[in-house]
Design brief:
Radius of gyration: 38 Å
Structural class: alpha+beta
Strand order of the largest sheet: 4-5-6-7-16-11-10-9-14
Number of strands: 31
Helix content: 40-55%
Number of helices: 37
Shape: globular
Length: 1353
């Protein structure tokens, strides 16, 4: 090497310059009798580089025997006395020593910050986009390197390195996340292998290049050289990387989504953990700082988990991402493999140096084969997964081989032989195995994560790798140092000279070369023993990865990318808002189009007038009505009397002609079509006000843009509600209330009391808390006589012409005495300054208290509309749309239908967890079930498959209601049971969940008892005017007949439909009783055949024989009975909302008996065909025909006919007809227009029917069975069972090519027209591969769908 002048280069501020006094102090002579060569005579003439636990820290430790040793930080200094003398005699060195402790502390902090920022980048890339985060990382790292190179002193260097670390933590992580976004999963491993090769090359070249720069130019250039490289990368990414647009909200809104609390706690937790591990292994495990740091880190991690699971709105590391079985297993594989193998890579070169006497360079050369094998293993794994689409067994084998390789290293380090070849062989096995494992575990992690969770999950895996490496080195250092101390003491004896040798040996590898040969051999043996101890520990550590690998689940690896990143763009909120009469809501879906969260407790939307007495504004919205208010509580897809439309605001620009007690005096037409998207709603009023709305889970945000001229008012009429036009028995009413305002009027709150609605509820109280962003200049409260808000002149006798309000300047007002149901109407009027252009208001709603309502207001930050919309979109994307994904974007109409339907499916019930006003509920609590009669047939089955936690919460709620109110509900709203349309259909919901393995926190013993209450206890008659014969509130109103005769007689309303439904209810009990109460099973199976008791085998209709009949106890049939008619088909009719022809098909648990009763398969097929013949229906269904559509006996607009088109699957070789009926119905009755539903949405039930058809499946309720149809998409994936993926593909799909030619289920050729629940939720994922064509085929030659309730009376 050429000779250099003293000032040729600039050295690190922590190191002396060449030729300084530190290098020139002569060694102190020592006695030759102590067995040592002269001090300073370094073996091989080389210095050994110091090892460091934290890559960015430099440390000097004492050699106190209690310090845990510093085997991993060897230096080439002489004795402790020499170091002390040199330090005291060298001012330059003393001056530089003051930087050591700050460097240690900052080094640990940098290591913590670098590692902590990794999981943060996962979530930040979701919020700010991948590209933005990668550019940020390059920019910060580049600037940090530049600042390092320009540092004038150590403080500046440390600060610059800290800054660079913020960027450095993100570069690798975001690139890995980007790969997952841009490369199909099946090819992902291969590309990871390429990246690993590049990384290894860079790491291999970087270290010597840095050394060359430091030696020849100066250490600064090792930093400065990186800045232009970062600039090139920054420009390349900026100009070349094109990614789909993501969240378009402003940066302030995105900033508010960051979980700062969680980030701070995580940084603190990792910092204290690293500090404790660092000091424990290098100072002492009994050191106070060590104990305090470690004891602090564990509670901090626990607090972090609590914050992420319970507090953070958008956590950096949600609980389901950390603790899901497969994900956690992958993290453990990463942790333990890096814990053991990375620590081994630390001690293997130490072994070569200390035991074999090699130089650092020579020891490093021996590592090269292992490194090459490592990147080769990664690439091999990538190509293997690309070819096989499998990773499970490869992962298990790889980590098992890692244990074998580590054991080989251990054995050939002197246990059975001291063999360099043996150790290198072991390193190659370890490197190849770990390269495979790291890659396959990453792919397993991604495959088992939803698309929305992949970034965070990937980032978390990098954190576990980093923590594992630190943990492993620390533990290994402790074991090795303890072994070295004891071995040296045993080998060298207890004399002073021996102790001095031991101290020097632990400080310096180079010192070994100065020892006399005999002593040197002893010392090398001690080093060998200490490193073998570390290797033995590391075997155990990597064994942890081998064990964890068994808990990983196999998932199908897709060859394609998800082409859609934002499914909210396909949601059309106005589908179903109009009915069969264009421009009106008559016979429509009664859909709520406003903003809300999935199962949101608050649903913010407009309420409108209705002047057609045949129509109600059940969801508040009508297309042609005038706006009377914006209110916070609504339902969707309900019939009967409307519910809610309470807690209002109304923006006004004038008070001229306005009577605040008469909505008709200030109602506003709309001047433009309303605009709605997920999380957002806008309506333009005739008075010039543009009202925009958003919502959180429990609060609403309204933004009013006023015209420049005119007044600026917001009216709060607490007595506002949705009135009833056509169903006055359960009409809704205002009862009472209270309102108060702050002194400046910027805040108001109170409560409203209301009653009635479709479930005939008694008084219910809703608390509210409102805030304005602009203080009003004037606030007045008002009160007036009790009236109907729409027709005040018709409800106050002698009013001339209308009652008027009395205004007052008080700050609070009560409607009347608490409990009084006819209290004064009250409200508030807020007037804002004339120069106000925009007024924003947020209102929280609670069923518990005013204080809690005010807490809910804070769910919305700073009145920010965009941020609130963005949060809502994220909730829908994460909780709903990510569960069903497709790469098939060929048909925009189908996409709009497919993703609009789940939106409506997730509006009800309302998630009011923590908001039960009647009793304390620890678990989930849902309200607004409309109704289980509608949803049990397919929607609850969908939740059981795709949303099991929601399904679990619903079951827990139903059972909890039984525990406190004696019966589970069929319908429920405002925390009150009612009404029951048929059977006790909560029984069906529970049974369906039970047979599909929904468990968790459900107490199934109590669940069965709740079902048994329905089956055995007759509910009291609430004397509903629409059916005075029985209870319509809860339970089985006609149970006394059922228990007496085994069927329901015409003594009770809806006798035919109730008989069929009670039969299914008892079959549901049988399904649960088989396990929970076997002694009851036979009883309920026998009772489930009750439908056969009213089957008349001789009754003929349309040339078909055998029908359900309204039968009296003596066996006679009701006079004049015709299966083609049910009168009005309402509460007091013989059948509810469907013809007896339809109900004759509704025994899915015993299709075998039904088919035999009809006359066999051929006759059943013919009779099914008749259901779809136009013009056979001769009477309307429901009052005014509002419960039916079309002219066929099959009614696509109501639930009893839901399963009829698919019953062909019960006939051998006739599955193609189910496909035909499915296609015909969807194409004829479902569109993307406002009238795009064939009937009432019924809380999303009719929408869910569409979704099942588009998936190519249909559930058989209370059974773990799904009928196979034909999908509408060529590739669609469902997240099922919480952590598995069902992928459905359709090869050959076309507009006329949709008949099934063949099917494979989980790779096996299939000849059955059905699959089981277990077929769809396998731990390794599931697949259904359809091959479709234009020709009908009888491919379904296998076993027919089961009839588990088969029994002939």
């Amino acid at each position: 090497m050429p000779e250099h002048k003293e000032n040729a280069t600039e050295t690190s501020p922590l190191l002396p310059k060449r030729g300084s006094s530190l290098q020139s102090v002569p060694p102190k002579p020592i006695e030759s009798s102590d067995g040592r060569a002269p001090n300073g005579a370094i073996a091989n003439g080389s210095l050994n580089e110091p090892f460091s636990l934290s890559s960015s820290s430099a440390s000097i430790h004492s050699s106190d025997p209690e310090d845990g040793g510093d085997l991993e930080r060897q230096s080439t200094t002489a004795s402790a006395a020499d170091r002390k003398r040199k330090a005291e005699g060298l001012p330059d060195v003393k001056k530089k020593m003051k930087y050591i402790l700050p460097a240690l502390a900052i080094g640990i902090f940098l290591s913590a910050a670098d590692q902590t920022i990794i999981p943060l980048y996962g979530k930040l890339s979701d919020i700010f986009t991948r590209k933005s985060c990668l550019l940020f990382a390059y920019l910060v790292f580049g600037l940090g390197c530049l600042f390092c190179g320009l540092a004038r002193n150590m403080n500046e260097l440390i600060a610059a390195r800290a800054f660079a670390g913020i960027g450095g933590g993100g570069m690798t992580t975001v690139v890995s996340i980007l790969l997952s976004d841009t490369v199909p999963l099946r090819e992902r491993g291969k590309w990871q292998g390429y990246v690993n090769i590049i990384y290894a090359t860079g790491a291999g070249v970087g270290a010597p290049l840095g050394g060359i720069l430091a030696d020849y130019i100066g250490w600064r250039w090792a930093f400065l050289f990186q800045a232009p490289l970062c600039l090139v990368a920054f420009l390349a990414v900026s100009l070349i990387l094109k990614l789909p647009a993501r969240d378009q909200s402003n940066w302030k809104a995105k900033l508010r989504r960051i979980d700062f609390l969680g980030a701070a706690i995580l940084i603190a937790a990792v910092f204290t953990l690293l500090l404790g591990l660092d000091r424990g292994s290098n100072v002492s495990w009994r050191d106070k700082v060590t104990l305090i740091a470690l004891c602090t880190s564990l509670p901090l991690f626990a607090i972090f988990v609590g914050v992420e699971m319970k507090v953070a709105a958008e956590p950096f590391a949600p609980g389901h991402i950390i603790f899901e079985r497969t994900l956690f297993a992958c993290y453990l594989c990463n942790f333990f493999s890096f814990c053991g193998w990375l620590a081994a890579l630390f001690y293997i070169p130490l072994f070569f140096q200390a035991v074999d006497g090699l130089s650092a360079t020579q020891a490093g050369v021996r590592l090269i084969p292992g490194i090459i094998c490592g990147v080769s293993g990664s690439l091999f794994a990538g190509f293997y997964m690309q070819r096989t689409a499998r990773y499970y067994w490869l992962t298990v084998i790889a980590y098992s081989c890692l244990v074998i390789g580590m054991t080989t290293i251990f054995l050939f380090s002197g246990i059975i032989a001291n063999s360099t070849l043996g150790m290198i062989t072991g390193m190659c096995v370890c490197g190849f195995s770990n390269g495979i494992g790291v890659t396959t575990s990453l792919i397993a992690l991604i495959a088992n994560s939803s698309h929305e969770d992949q970034a965070v999950a990937t980032a978390c895996s990098y954190l576990f790798r980093s923590l594992g490496s630190v943990f492993g080195v620390s533990l290994s250092a402790t074991v090795a140092n303890a072994t070295l101390r004891s071995s040296l003491a045993d080998a060298l004896g207890s004399g002073t000279a021996a102790a001095d040798i031991a101290a020097r040996v632990r400080e310096s590898l180079g010192y070994i070369g100065t020892l006399e040969p005999a002593v040197r051999d002893l010392v090398r043996q001690c080093y060998a023993k200490s490193t073998r101890a570390a290797f033995g520990l590391e075997i155990g550590l990597v064994a942890g990865a081998a064990v964890a690998a068994w808990f990983i689940r196999e998932r199908a690896l897709s060859r394609t990318l998800a082409a859609i990143s934002d499914y909210t763009q396909y949601v059309n909120h106005f589908i179903g808002t109009q009915g069969s009469t264009p421009g009106t809501s008559y016979n429509g879906g009664n859909v709520f189009p406003g903003p809300t969260w999935p199962f949101g407790a608050v649903k913010v939307g407009i309420d409108t007038t209705v002047f057609n007495l045949s129509i109600d504004a059940n969801a508040g919205y009508t297309p042609d009505g005038n706006v009377t208010a914006i209110t916070l509580l609504h339902e969707s897809g309900t019939g009967g009397a409307p519910k809610y439309g309470v807690i209002p605001q109304m923006p006004l620009t004038t008070l001229e002609g306005v009577n605040v007690l008469d909505n008709l005096t200030y109602m506003q037409p709309r001047t433009a079509a309303d605009v709605a998207s997920v999380g957002y709603y806008k309506t333009s009023l005739a008075n010039g006000v543009v009202a925009e709305m958003a919502a959180s889970q429990h609060a609403g945000l309204m933004q009013y843009s006023f015209p420049a001229s005119g007044g600026k008012y917001v009216l709060v009429d607490l007595s506002h509600y949705l009135p009833t036009q056509d169903d006055h028995v359960p009409e809704q009413y205002y009862s009472n209330g209270m309102i108060e305002t702050s002194n400046d009027g910027s805040m108001y709150g109170g409560y409203g009391v209301y009653r009635g609605g479709w479930n005939e509820a008694p008084d219910y109280t809703v608390y509210f808390c409102g805030k304005f962003d602009t203080p009003p200049e004037n606030t007045q409260l008002f009160s007036g006589a009790y009236t109907d808000p729409y027709w005040p002149n018709g409800t106050v006798p002698g009013s001339s012409p209308h009652p008027t309000a009395t205004f007052m300047n008080a700050t609070s007002i009560n409607g009347g005495t608490p409990g009084y149901q006819y209290a004064d109407r009250i409200g508030a009027l807020f007037q804002f300054p004339a120069n106000t252009s925009t007024v924003r208001s947020k209102v929280g709603v609670s069923w518990i208290s005013y204080d809690k309502a005010c807490q809910f207001v804070n769910e919305i930050q700073d009145f920010d509309l965009n941020a609130t919309v963005a949060a809502t979109k994220n909730a829908w994307s994460t909780e709903v749309f990510s569960k069903t994904t497709t790469t098939d974007t060929s048909n925009a109409t189908r996409l709009e239908m497919m993703y609009s339907a789940p939106y409506r499916m997730h509006l009800l019930p309302s998630d009011r967890t923590g908001e039960n006003p009647n009793w304390r509920t620890e678990g989930p609590y849902y309200d607004d079930f409309y109704t289980l009669w509608d949803t049990f047939r397919c929607l609850n089955s969908f939740l059981n498959l795709v949303q099991p936690k929601v399904a679990e919460g619903i079951v827990i709620t139903l059972v909890d209601i039984w525990k406190h109110e004696r019966f589970m509900p069929d319908g429920r709203s405002s925390n009150y049971n009612g009404r029951v349309q048929g059977g006790s259909n909560a029984d069906n919901v529970l049974a369906d969940a039970y047979v599909k393995g929904i468990g968790g926190a459900i107490n199934w013993t109590e669940g069965y008892m709740a079902m048994k209450t329905d089956a055995e206890v007759v509910p009291y008659n609430n004397f509903d005017p629409q059916d005075l014969t029985q209870s319509t509130k809860e339970g089985r109103g006609a149970l006394s007949d059922w228990l007496t005769y085994g069927f329901v007689t015409p003594k009770y309303g809806r006798s035919i439909s109730k008989t069929v439904e009670y039969s299914l209810n008892d079959f549901a009990l049988y399904q649960v009783a088989k396990t929970e109460a076997p002694q009851d099973a036979a009883t309920y199976l026998n009772r489930s055949a009750g439908w056969q008791r009213i089957w008349n085998h001789n009754l003929t209709s349309l040339n078909y024989t055998g029908f359900l009949t309204p039968m009296y106890p003596n066996g006679t049939i009701q006079s004049g009975y015709d299966p083609l008619s049910c009168g009005a088909c309402e509460w007091d009719a013989i059948a509810y909302e469907a013809l007896p022809w339809e109900y004759s098909w509704t025994v899915p648990f015993d299709m075998e008996t039904l088919i035999s009763f009809i006359g066999g398969p051929a006759r059943t097929e013919s009779r099914l065909d008749a259901m779809f013949v136009p013009n056979l229906k001769t009477t309307a269904v429901g009052t005014g025909g509002t419960n039916g559509i079309g002219s066929t006996l099959f009614n696509p607009g109501n639930e009893p006919s839901f399963s009829t088109p698919f019953l062909y699957n019960y006939l051998q070789g006739r599955q193609y007809k189910s496909v035909q009926r499915s296609r015909e119905t969807v194409n004829q009755y479902y569109t993307t227009g406002p009238s795009g539903l064939p009937g009432n949405s019924d809380a999303g039930a009719i929408d869910n029917w569409l979704v099942w058809n588009m998936l190519g499946l249909y559930p058989v309720v209370t059974q773990p069975v799904y009928l196979l149809l034909s999908p509408f998409f060529s590739d669609i994936s469902l997240s099922v069972a919480g952590n598995s993926t069902l992928r459905i593909t359709a090869h050959g799909l076309g507009d006329e090519s949709y008949y099934v030619q063949s099917v494979k289920v989980n790779g096996q050729q299939w000849n059955q027209s059905w699959v089981s629940h277990s077929d769809l939720i396998g731990e390794e994922g599931a697949t259904i591969e359809f091959v479709l064509g234009p020709q009908t085929t009888s491919w379904d030659t296998g076993a027919l769908p089961p009839s588990p309730g088969h029994l002939v009376l």
